[in-house]
Each structure stands twice: as C-alpha cells, then as structure tokens.
Amino acid sequence: MNDRFATAAMERLRALRYKDDSLATLGTATVDPHAEERLQDVRRKNLTHSLRLSAELAPKLSHAIAAVREKLVPHLEVEAYLYNAPEAQAFSFQGLTGSTIVIALTSGLARLVTGSELKFVIGHELGHCLLGHEAYPDPGAMGSDVERLNLLALQRAAEISADRIGFVACESRDDSFRAILKVVSGLPSELIRFDLTAYLDQGKDLCEMGGSEYELMSTHPMFTARLRALLWFEMSELYFTWSDKRGTAPIDKGTLHKKIRGELAAASGFRLADINEKAVRSALLWGVLGIFAVDKKLSKAEQALLRRTFGDITADNAIQFVKNSGPEAVTGKFEEKLQAIRMMSLETKEALYEDLERFAAMAGGSEKVRLGWLQVVIDRLELTRTVNLSAKGADPALALKSESIFRSGRQVSS
Q: What is the pTM assigned to this prediction?
C-alpha cells in the first residue's frame, strides 16, 4: 500500500473518533522522543517472558489478529504476544515511527473471547494506538483534583472511540457486546446469558439513584454506557457514512454526540459537570476582576457589572480583595484558576475565553494592556485564535457562553 492510500485509510479510521475524545483538549500534542526506545523495551520484555503469536504456534489467535490488521492497518506491522495471567487484559504500544504496533494479550483473555469477539478486542487495542491515546498524560501527575478528574473523563472518552474501532474490526454488534461483557464479568459464554435489555436496565437503575461518584475515578465508562454508545453508533449517520450503508441513519452526528455525552455524564450523576461549572465560574470571576483591574482601579460601572454577573456577596468579596491585596494578587489567583481548566474540553476553554473577551471589551484602561492580558489567557489555555476587541455586543453578564455549556449538557438520552 502506497503512502497516499495508507494516509487515507488512517484518516478514515480517525474520523470515527468520539468528539469528546479530543487531542485538542491537551493543547499542542508533544511527540515523545523516547517512544521508539520504549517500543524496543516492550518488545524485549515480551520476547523474554511472553509467547510471540504465530500461525504455527497459535493459529486461531494469529488468524484473528491478521484479519484485523488486514482490515484496519494493512500498511503497518502488528507484533502480538501472549503472556500467562488470569485477568482478561490487553495492551498495545506504538513506536515513534508508527510502523509497528505491539499488542499483548493475557491467557485469561484468550480463553474468554473467541472468534469475532477477539477481533473486537484487537481492533479496540489498535484503536488506542491509531488515535494517539498514548499521548494522554498520567492522571496521577496532574496538579489539581479538577485536572485529574477531567483527564480521567478524557480517558473514558478514549474508550468510546476505541470501542468504535473494535466494532468496525469485528463487524458485529452482538460480538462487540459479548466481548465487553465477558471482559467486565470474567465469565465465559456457558455461564452468562447475553440479554441486552437486562444489562441496560442496570445502567438505568444507577442513573435513577443519581449516578455514582466512583465513576469519576474510573478510566473506563461503566459497561452499560459502552453498550449504549455502540448501539447508537451503529444507528448513526457517522457509521452509515463509514460503512457505505444505504438509507437514512436514524441518528445524526450531533445527536449521537449529545446522547453519548449525556449517558457518560449521567453515570456520575453529573458530578463532573458541577465541579467544572464551579471551576469555570471561579476562573471567570478572577479573570474579569483581573481585566477590570489592569488600569489599577475598579470603576463604578465595572463594579456594577461584577455584581450583576456574580451576585452581590461574591462581587463585594472580590472587590474587597482587590482593595486589600492589590491588582497584582488578582493575577496570581487567576493563574491558579486557569490551571484547573487546562484539561477541560476545547469547547469549554473556548467559551471561557470568549466570555473574558466580551468583558475585556467593556473594561477601562489601555487597549494594548487588555490585548496583552487576553493573549496570556490564550497561551495558558493553548488555544488557536487571535484576540478581538472590536465588537462589544450586549452586556456579557446576561448570556455567559461558559455557563450555557453546562446547562445544555445535563440531558439524559433514552
């Protein structure tokens, strides 16, 4: 396969990415210069302690892996290993050059899934590599709880994307469901009955209880959310287009995204949305305060706008802080609040910036200073845009874009 067709094949697969699984959330992705070295270390470890799968040694496993490779990435080498462990687990790793992907499966997984179910697992693991999920940082390395929770949400979104790649790899909704349920339960076919309605009722019961805070700390979505997401994906315009399926898809791309986002959020009782809304509103407060204080004073009009936006008590406390600590202290507070926003969605970061820009258009002081201040916000949030203070528009306190995102997100789809 030449480079042009290889690129087209990769772009076609990447088009299946779930919208909230966005590399843009992380800003400019950096290339790990040690990726190739790490790949070789992975290979050495597996060559030492694992069985390299081949048609001669494990024909059924090797056939499934070869079939998925040919379907998804015929231009890449896939090196597969099996190691002895009772857990049903798999992982994949791709080097810097991107020409080889290493996949390792446990013996527990190999015993659990069969045929097309294994193809789903292999496709899922390849999906993680093809979609760049290895670039996502370790949640434990994040500086704040808000950052950590949002990075975990990003990892859950990555699983939705990888499930889609697994689905197109095995070409069977039922086998995709079985693979997920077997891995979740650890039970083989003879001990578990695949009743989709009964499984989905479990997720419904959790949502009726108000969700679970434990979902916030998970790297994987609850399995019923994964099943629903695949069910909706199969009915979507996105899948119809990808598979050249005839007819009109029951679910368009926008509705698909809203349904899945609502389902994932409901699993935690919308707790992350509440946490993020508070963090964004706090960042907005200190950001607006910083913009208004760039000229070393707060005018009566600026103080009135603060009160209309944030309420009398919050605004008065913020105004008193400026009087007691000075404008420079506001900058430090704002930098701290911005840090917590870094791992939120690009949509949220863009909305926060646009709100700040509208307030900046109404602030006093030098335009040059305000432009520089907003440029710092763009740099901290790693946004790709230019500052624009030309259009003042309506009172920004009346319609905050950053708050409308959270209001519209609290919807559960049936």
A: 0.91
- What gap in Å lies between CA 61 and CA 175, rounded to an integer? 16
Owning domain of residue 36: 3-269
Higher pLDDT, residue 121 or 244: 121
Is the domain of 315 the same as that of 207?
A: no
Strands 77-83 and 51-52 turn out to be antiparallel
Residue 274 belongs to a domain: no
Q: Is residue 115 part of a domain?
A: yes
pLDDT at 413: 47
Same domain (yes/no): 221, 109: yes
pLDDT tens track for 61-70: 999 999 999 9
Residue 276 in domain: no
Last residue of a domain, one of 235, 269, 303: 269
C-alpha dihedral sign at 108, 179, 155, 146: negative
244 and 341 inside one domain = no
- Backbone φ and ψ for 118, nearest 5 degrees, come out as -65, -35
Terminal CA-CA length for the chain: 43
255 and 299 share one domain: no
Tokens of 138: 């370790």
Tell whether 217 and 308 lie within a shared domain: no
Q: Is 336 exposed, middle or buried (0-12, 13-18, 19+ CB in 10 A)?
A: middle
Residue 86 in tokens? 């009772």
